[in-house]
Design a protein that fits this description.
It is found in: Cell membrane. The chain is α+β, with helices and mostly antiparallel strands. It is built from 20 helices and 11 strands. Strands 1, 2, 3, 4 and 6 form a 5-stranded antiparallel sheet that branches. Strands 5-10-9-7 form a 4-stranded mixed sheet.
Length: 546
């Protein structure tokens, strides 16, 4: 591990201990060796004893930077795991991170534009509209059209801060892999590499602009999700310009209640949006914490979401999508044998796994859940427990599923916050069944054939020529194979003949030598030796050349 990594690691430990986060752990999670390790940092004391646990955790995440702020943002949505006090405290990480100076913001914007702000915008507001872990947002008016816009600009030196944490994580993950040996099951380096690609992508606002435009186009005709228009011609790597929207933060339940929002419909639409993005479009927003989501002020009886911050997007392979859908449907139907086989077919666990034992373990994990009402069963918890159970059977970690799992936890936490009686199963099962029917069977075959029709119509005229060329090539290859076989047989015949002569010469030489020792047969001995030498020479020179 590098000196920089050691320094950063020490800084992380120091911050955690200075905010007394070790004191928040229950006693059962603090064995003797934990206490020994804590005592080895005796000079670091808790400096914030007067603050609540939630405040300490939030301030520690702020101190550690963007990577850890993201962790706090995710946790803030899990009110089923955290108390209201903790959830409300961590929710401040979503858009209430301390801002940086407007002068630095102006300089960064003008550097990206290559000109002054006044050349493109009027009424630039120095007071930020929102300040998050990676970027800050300012309001302005587009000079060319008078349209209200927002300018999103990256924080100064944010790239260096994130790179330092990622480097430390990479070093730690490689150290863990060396300690674990060559293990296919647990791949921390792959997980960190996947997270690195994700978070570094969030530092490229030009990429985020492309993502937002693509997601907007996917939901143009939707009454569930609206993505603001992005002015891509004004977007750069550290600057993004987009339409200013007027909505209610999804976390502001009081205001949503006051306008008469249909919470049941809103929560169900959140689940539908998630499954539509994952299974229909294979392009899902993977950072849907409450700070990035607003609710329309229009038609509260038919509300729609407004999504922001498309820096982190996820995709899955076709096989991963199908296996996930089948996994959920098998769980709905309590088909544990199918779940076990799906894990093996997908390659998530080894093919040598005892299927019966794995099926029984899945059943033991799932059955108690069905003792509760469906609306109390956590979708994210099911997925988490399935992976946890599979780890006992050498689960091969799938980095591409980490974003999906995180997003599902976001969506579920948000839905339950809006409408605690939300039945994710009732909402999700029909969607998954329809999607599966479109992937297999006659309808799926027709759709795939229809999609590939332009390709085949283009290639069809070439088909007779391709068939003729392949038949001609096949005949030529068959002839070549016959020639190779003939040469091989000839080689073997020559080899056998040479070996026969060499063995015969050896026998004759031995006999001649024996007879030579018997003085009674000198002529016969000389004849055997001469004949043996002749056979050896003939056999040696007629051997096949390699």
């Amino acid at each position: 591990m590098s000196i920089t990594g050691i320094r950063r690691g020490y800084h992380i430990i120091k911050v955690l201990l200075q905010f007394g986060l070790d004191e928040l752990l229950p006693k059962k999670l603090k064995p003797w060796y934990f206490k020994l390790l804590r005592s080895s940092f005796f000079w670091i004391r808790n400096k914030h004893k007067s603050l609540s646990g939630g405040e300490r955790f939030r301030l520690a995440m702020l101190e550690l930077g963007p990577v850890y702020i993201k962790l706090g943002q995710m946790l803030s949505t899990r009110r089923d795991l955290l108390s209201d006090e903790w959830a409300q405290e961590l929710a401040k990480l979503q858009d209430r991170v301390p801002p940086f100076s407007s002068q630095l913001a102006r300089e960064a914007i003008e550097t990206e534009l290559g000109t002054s702000i006044d050349a493109h915008f009027d009424d630039f507001d120095d007071t930020p509209l929102a300040s998050a872990s990676i970027a800050q947002v300012h309001c302005a008016t587009l000079k060319s059209s008078g349209a209200p816009v927002v300018l999103k600009v990256l924080r100064p030196n944010i790239e260096q801060q994130i790179q330092a944490d990622i480097t430390l994580m990479e070093q730690v993950s490689h150290t863990i892999e060396k300690l674990l040996g060559n293990s296919r099951r647990f791949r921390p380096a792959d997980v960190i590499a996947d997270y690195k690609n994700t978070i570094l992508g969030e530092l490229d606002l030009k990429l985020e602009a492309h993502n937002a435009t693509k997601l907007r186009n996917n939901f143009l005709d939707s009454d569930s999700l609206y993505i603001p228009f992005v002015y891509e011609e004004l977007c750069h790597r550290r600057l993004m310009v987009m339409e200013r929207i007027d909505g209610i933060p999804v976390s502001n339940v009081e205001e949503l209640t006051a306008q008469g929002t249909n919470f049941k419909l809103l929560a169900e639409r959140g689940v539908e949006i998630f499954f539509t993005q994952v299974f229909r479009d294979n392009f899902f927003h993977a950072d849907m914490h409450p700070g990035n989501i607003f609710i329309s002020k229009e038609h509260p009886d038919n509300p729609y979401y407004i999504g922001l911050d498309c820096g982190i997007m996820g995709i899955l392979s076709d096989s991963d999508k199908r296996y996930l859908a089948e996994n959920f449907l098998a769980f709905f139907n309590r088909d544990y044998q199918r779940i076990a086989h799906l894990y093996i077919e997908s390659g998530w666990i080894s093919g040598d796994t005892d299927v019966v034992a794995f099926e029984q373990a899945v059943k033991a994990m799932c059955e108690p859940m069905f003792n509760k009402p469906l609306h109390e069963i956590s979708f994210g918890h099911v997925l988490l427990e399935l992976f946890r159970t599979a780890r006992r059977f050498e689960l091969i970690v799938q980095p591409q599923l980490i974003l999906l799992q995180k997003t599902l936890l976001y969506i579920e936490g948000l839905g339950r916050q809006l409408y605690p009686q939300l039945d994710l199963w009732q909402t999700a099962k029909p969607f998954l069944e329809n999607w599966m029917s479109e992937q297999v069977g006659p309808k799926a075959f027709y759709q795939k054939a229809k999609a590939n029709l332009p390709f085949w119509s283009e290639k069809l005229p070439e088909l007779p020529e391709l068939v003729y060329d392949n038949l001609k090539l096949g005949r030529k290859m068959l002839g070549s194979q016959q020639d190779m076989l003939n040469r091989y047989l000839k080689h073997q015949q020559q080899l056998h003949k040479s070996h026969y002569l060499l063995i015969t010469s050896a026998v004759l030489l031995i006999c001649g030598t024996f007879l030579f020792t018997q003085s009674a047969y000198p002529v016969l001995a000389q004849s055997c030796i001469g004949l043996g030498v002749g056979c050896w020479l003939f056999g040696w020179f007629t051997r096949p050349k390699s």
